[in-house]
Amino acid sequence: MSQDAFRAALDVSRETLERLDQYEALLRKWNAAINLVSSGSLKEVWSRHFLDSAQVFSKASDARTWADMGSGGGFPGIVVAILAAAEAPDLRVTLVESDLRKATFLTTVVRELSLGAAVIPERIEKVPPLAAQVVSARALAPLSQLLGHADRHLAPGGRAVFLKGGSWPSEVEEAQKHWKFEFEAHKSKTDPSGVILTIGAISRV
Ligand SMILES: C[S@@+](CC[C@H](N)C(=O)[O-])C[C@H]1O[C@@H](n2cnc3c(N)ncnc32)[C@H](O)[C@@H]1O
Predict the structure, then answer these.
(1) 56: number of CA atoms within 13 Å, CB side?
(2) What's the pLDDT tens digit per position in 79-97?
(3) Is 139 touching ligand 1 by the criterion CB < 6 Å?
(4) From the annotation, which residues make up the binding site for S-adenosyl-L-methionine?
């Protein structure tokens, strides 16, 4: 998918497209030295990473505080911060990433694109409660574990937005053994078997 196809799938401003272009250039430059994303998926960066992450923002664009856990090369957290720069300028995004080289990359992107975001180079388990209105994650851990992190880092009434692949029904079933929660599964635009799970009212069983 090219920038044009991304634009057809999602109505975003020229300013946002320019920031995504800058982000793509930084990803390509740094990916040569540190493995931020697989080189195969870099060929389809606009669909596999940008559009995939943008779906997460669209599920909670009214938030003011957002924590993305295990951001890696910045998915979905950096894309959320880029979309927010034009559409929700008051939103503050916290990116938690335990790998120091990736966290340095994320800090560079935040600085060069002037994003409303901060990076915490730490394991999410060690970070003091963030009291975020939204927490997100992609490819970090099974749902049951993610709910433990969400429970600790969400403000009262907050919600989680997780990108999940085809195994999501069994992950929900397993998580329900340990957690009570309300959820909705929204069909992914980028993965035919994947969903965006929006989850609220999380408490231990
Ligand atoms: C499979 S990658 C996914 C990265 C990104 N979310 C994506 O979808 O492209 C998982 C990332 O989480 C980070 N990570 C793993 N365990 C973590 C933890 N406990 N706290 C914070 N980051 C963690 C890893 O360093 C890695 O960058």
Answers:
(1) 28
(2) 999 999 999 999 999 999 9
(3) yes
(4) 70, 75, 124-125, 138
Mean pLDDT, rounded, for 155-183? 98
Residue 76, Cβ density class (10 Å: 0-12 exposed, 13-18 middle, ≥19 buried): buried
Domain of residue 89: give its range: 3-204
CA 40 to ligand 1 center in whole angstroms: 19
* Contacts with 65 (C-beta within 8 Å, 6 or more apart), sequence order: 91, 92, 94, 130, 131, 132, 133, 134, 155
User: Minimal CA–CA distance to 93: which of 145, 51, 136?
Assistant: 136
Mean pLDDT computed over 114-141: 98
- Ligand 1 centroid to residue 14 C-alpha, Å: 30
Ligand 1 pocket, residue 22 CB under 6 Å: no
> Number of C-alpha atoms within 13 angstroms, CB side, residue 6?
23
User: pTM score, two decimals?
Assistant: 0.97
Neighbours of 187 (CB within 10 A): 11
8, 38 Cβ separation under 8 angstroms: no
Atom of ligand 1 nearest to the CA of 76: 6
With a threshold of 0.95, tell me whether the complex ipTM lies above it: yes
The domain that holds 187 is classified in CATH as 3.40.50.150
Binding site membership of 123 for ligand 1 (Cβ less than 6 Å): yes
d(CA 145, ligand 1 centre) in Å: 13
Cβ of 75 closer than 6 Å to ligand 1, yes or no, is: yes
Q: Whose CA is nearest to atom 9 of ligand 1?
A: 75
